[in-house]
């Protein structure tokens, strides 16, 4: 994992509220609030007592973390007939990520996109990976410890990102946006940590117009995955849609949004 000290100028208390300094094994803000660093992973979660969808989905993802990747690969193959790794590679290769740029991945899960994102930014780029689930970030950190560039792995809430304003050239957020208590607020946080002109690559489950309304696959996926029942989030002020595409054989959307001055 990249040295935490090199990231300290950009790390903040959740929501970007306060700069942090290192005191022993903790990060401390200017009000005395303490955030532990365990196994090299800063734990910068707010609020401490999660509620609603944030709480219930966090429990679920902690529980499924050891089997998550296998479950996704097998499930996508059986239900959709797709090779998940091929689809993930195509997604990242379609993105306008410049070599040498900085990129934050929100909802990184066990880090399945990290090797592809590392290749996109190149050895001179910088990566950070964030997830609310402790089980997921532990797996992501283990997976990426020999990766170049090695990401800063952080436990944090995508609705209260622990980074300063305008910290990143890009944010990658594929999957999970519909599960937030407030997806629109989470997108506002993504916009906050992007530099002006920076790009947010946002994707999640959603049917393309080519998927038959009465088709068996659509009806089955609506039953087994609640994200298919929820609409895409509203685009908040500070972001403008530049590109829209369908991925996963029409079962997910992928937007490129640009950070603009308001």
- Percent helix range: 25-40%
Structural class: alpha/beta
What percent strand?
25-35%
Number of helices: 8
Tell me the total number of β-strands. 11
Q: What would you report as the Rg, rounded to the nearest angstrom? A: 18 Å
Distance between the termini: 35 Å
Q: What form results from the Cα inertia axes?
A: globular
Stated plainly, the CATH topology is called Rossmann fold
Largest sheet: 11 strands, mixed
Main β-sheet, spatial strand arrangement? 1-2-3-4-7-6-5-8-9-11-10
CATH class (first level) name: Alpha Beta
Q: Could you report the average pLDDT, rounded to the nearest whole number?
A: 93
Order of helices and strands: HEEEEHHHEHEHEEHEHEE
CATH superfamily name? Vaccinia Virus protein VP39
CATH architecture: 3-Layer(aba) Sandwich
Question: Overview of this structure, please?
Answer:
With 262 residues, the protein is an alpha/beta fold. The protein has one domain (42-259): Vaccinia Virus protein VP39 (Rossmann fold). The protein contains 8 helices and 11 strands. The protein is globular. The model has no long low-confidence stretch (mean pLDDT 93).
């Amino acid at each position: 994992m990249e040295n935490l000290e090199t990231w300290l100028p950009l790390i903040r208390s959740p929501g970007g509220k306060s700069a942090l300094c290192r005191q022993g094994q903790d990060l401390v803000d200017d009000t005395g609030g303490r955030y532990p660093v365990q196994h090299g992973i800063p734990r910068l979660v707010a609020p401490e007592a999660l509620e609603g969808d944030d709480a219930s989905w966090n429990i679920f993802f902690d529980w499924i973390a050891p089997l998550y990747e296998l479950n996704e690969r097998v499930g996508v193959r059986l239900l959709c007939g797709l090779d998940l790794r091929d689809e993930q590679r195509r997604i990242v290769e379609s993105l306008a990520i410049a070599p040498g740029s900085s990129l934050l991945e929100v909802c990184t899960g066990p880090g399945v996109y990290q090797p592809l994102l590392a290749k996109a930014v190149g050895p001179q780029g910088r990566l950070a990976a964030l997830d609310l689930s402790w089980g997921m970030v532990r797996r992501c950190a283990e997976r990426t410890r020999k990766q170049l560039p090695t990401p800063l792995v952080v436990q944090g809430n995508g609705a209260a990102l622990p980074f300063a304003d305008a910290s990143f050239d890009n944010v990658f957020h594929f999957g999970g946006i519909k599960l937030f208590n407030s997806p629109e607020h989470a997108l506002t946080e993504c916009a906050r940590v992007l530099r002006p002109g920076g790009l947010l690559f946002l994707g999640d489950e959603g049917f393309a117009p080519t998927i038959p309304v009465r088709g068996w696959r659509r009806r089955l996926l609506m039953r087994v995955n609640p994200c298919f029942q929820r609409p895409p989030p509203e685009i908040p002020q500070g972001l403008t849609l530049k590109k829209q595409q369908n991925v996963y054989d029409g079962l997910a959307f992928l937007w490129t949004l640009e950070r603009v001055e308001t």
